[in-house]
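Quick one, T. Sequence first:
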Amino acid sequence: MLLRENGRVDATAYGAFTDALALRLASDPRVVGLVALGSMSGEGPAPDAFSDHDFFVITAQGAQERWRTDLSWLPGAERAVLVHRETEHGLKVVLDDGHLLEFAVFDLEELLVARANRYAVLLDRGGVAERMERVAAKPVEARPDRWLAGQLLGNLLVGGGRAARGELLSARLFVAGHATGHLLRLLARHVPAEARTPLDDLDPFRRFERAYPRLGGEVNAALSLAPLDAALALVDLAGRELGPRLPEWPASAAAAVRDRLSRARESGAAG
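Structure tokens:
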């Protein structure tokens, strides 16, 4: 078991799983490397009760598919209650205590399609560290401010419209998902952080509240509202924080979106 009865992570068991995995893989000459990701890498925050094991397995060319389909090499494989082939290379495995394993199996050349930021090479029989340096050095697609602002306002408008029609599930996706992701990228780019916490350049939602406790709390409070009210709150927050800092902030468009959302809310209240 990786979790104690109180729900906290058992650090000894967490590390023991990592060690067992590394030993099993190192014992097979067809395995070229093992790369730990996220909490498993030891880089950044220590594992907690919700930390999974994220890793890459690198095999000899031609062996990778066997390692994706026959999981007898995986410690605790007999306790798996879910084995989900998520992508061509990647799987999710859930053990009977709820612990999640997320991993991908590559050969050396396939490894170059991966993305990673925090990682540690635990096994390297040649070429893994060099390729992981290239993987980590890939530039994250940085959309221009104008594009992010346009997506933000457009998604808020669509989400508000869906809410006005009673399509609340779709409305929440556009407001709390699409629009908020664009907003968080813009805030992280232009607003000085309130705390020295590294953000995740692959996921704008990760650790945002740690770096921006005030803004993170405000965004969360907005998202607790009904979707139409949330959209209005986010338009106001964006205008207040980004308007003075972002030369390309489309103030006229933001005002038009706010007016349209306000009229939709008033129409719903009147109805």
